[in-house]
Fold each of these.
Amino acid sequence: MASIRENLAAVRERVEAASRRAGRDPRSVLLLAVCKKQPAAAIREAYEAGQRHFAENQVQEFEQKRAGLDLPHAEWHLIGHLQSNKARRAATLFQVIETVDSIRLARRLNDAARDLDAVRLRVMIEVKLSAEPSKEGCSEQELPELAAGTRELANLELVGLMTVPPFTADPEGARPYFRRLWEWNERLGLSVLSMGMSHDFEVAIEEGSTIVRVGTAIFGERGTGPE
Ligand SMILES: *Cc1c(COP(=O)(O)O)cnc(C)c1O
């Protein structure tokens, strides 16, 4: 089995190749290592291989795991659904919250950031572009109002949009969703686009992604919980 270091190198190469194919500067794409359900040792291995940007999908899981981690230069993104009542904890743990989906949550995060004296907490809006009931995110109908409302909050910095398209075995199935999110980003004057996972990040880069969230291609299959 390939090591995490080898997997990371291979993913970075694929990110660079996809960027060049799309006529983009590879440095315009941030590789986020999604380490949910991975043990601290695996995260440390990725850090030692030079990875600095990581993502978790649960506040509680990360709270438990990070006690055993000492990664001074790591930046953490939250990429899972966040309940308003956990906003305060999330604001202390993560540098970027990618999953704002309501004005209520945005306000809670703003209050938390203000109390923490954080300059401004970077946030993104998760957009639900398909009808699946299992998906999180704000609808396209709600998006302009939520973006405007979030921008009014002094302690948040709205940087961009994030989405998880419906899964299709063929990664090409995700392309129309990626394109649509890019169009929304342009329309709203935003610059950061978080889209693309292990099986479709190359398509996402071709469609303008600036953050790819890659888990299994780096760490292998996920376990059942933190260790
Ligand atoms: C788990 C997860 C990922 C990573 O998925 P892989 O298929 O393992 O690369 C990306 N984004 C979100 C929102 C996730 O929950």
Amino acid sequence: MEELANSEGISDTTFGALSTSPDILVFSENEMRRLGYQVVDAVIAHILNVDSQRPAATASDDVLTSALDGPLPNSASALDVNLTTLVDVLTTYQQHEDHKRYFARVPGPTSFPAILGDWLATGMQATASSWQNAPGPSTAEIVVCQWLGEALGLEGAWDGILVSGGSVANLTAIVTARACNGPGTIYLSDQTHASVMRALASIGWAPKDIRVIPSDRSHRFDTAALATAVLEDISAGRKPSVVVATAGTTNTGAVDDLDTIAKICAEHGLWLHVDAAYGGAAAICDQGRAHLSGLSKADSLVIDPHKWMFQPFDIGCLLVKHPGCLERTFAMSPEYLADISRGTVNFYNRGLELTRRSRALKLWITFQTYGRETLASAIARCMALAEFAQRIIELNPLLQVVTPAQLGIVTFEAPHLNDAGHADVIDRLTSEGFAVTSSTVLDGRTVLRLCTINPRTTTDDIRDTIEHIDKLTRSSAPEFHRSSTPLLT
Ligand SMILES: *Cc1c(COP(=O)(O)O)cnc(C)c1O
């Protein structure tokens, strides 16, 4: 460098400024501590206060635009002011999926160790692309994938990878299944998560090779219909290739009969992919595992720690039983052949991301800090909360259980209300600000649904929420009443 700098033609006036570290983009130690603690304080205030706030807040576009929009900033402004703006927006204008009375879709309860783990990964620019650039975070990823498998009771050592969530994990699984088991027909049920169909469309899986089998009366995969369809396809000269089963559907928490499906798969050489994005976590406790028989028989399995393992968004996990399959599918360089032994893993060769953040640290510190037993009792508590909700609904003369509590989900209806009436109840519940829940559609009917996976939720929260729902169904406008039922007074 010295030689270059001294060589003729390079003048100090042109490049002189480069000879010292710049102070652009830099904050002083004192400022960083002060502002960093400001964020810590804001997050801790959120954790302490979230349950006493409204679980959902909305605002008109105007309000949000005036808070955040404006011309592209050309010059600097104060970081503490900007942080305050963001804190205000975050605390005010979003549904708090970590609120103890947030029962909609799939809530996102977090935990403090996991938040700290995520912060560390961000602050230390933790990556997990190649073994060479990140042996530490890569090892953490290998370890947490192994721990997840063990926690779920999977037998053997599965290869794993962390991705952004269940959608990308399902996509990664399907691409792997096709690469390792060959193209052909894929079988889903009508309760399969929509991300699977989108994954198939994204990779151009021919619609004629996708069979969606109507689920049985309990919203499980109709295994008899599956067996028939597979046989029909074989005799028609098609090649059955993959079955996507669900362990804990997002709609009702129903678990497909994995043992029977695995048998059909084994008999005809199909790849069994199990989407346990929602329900898989329940296998960590005895109460849940009792409902999840057959998980180990999957060829690939998806679980979303950002749903029911108390992780900040985002983290999903794909586990594959066959060693080297992920690399065979995704490796960008032939050196991968050297890397499939355990120990060194180049994660960029296991999925679609090259530069990847380390999502493992937060889950590692969660397992390490709480231990399996504590996590298991938190999850068991959530399952019991849904059972409690079911009991309260059963005792209510105006409400009726549609599907019983399964892995933390119960669905129910107010039989005197029509579909629009159910949607209206949800809207009014949300705008009241006491609790948030959502509807779903089962057998063509709109029903109410509670997903109780926040361990801070209490029986009072459930009882009071159902009481609110009861009141709202009583005060529904006449146009929301089913014509066949007399108006209630
Ligand atoms: C939530 C969910 C997904 C999608 O997961 P994301 O993390 O939202 O991408 C897939 N399958 C099932 C069963 C789910 O519940």
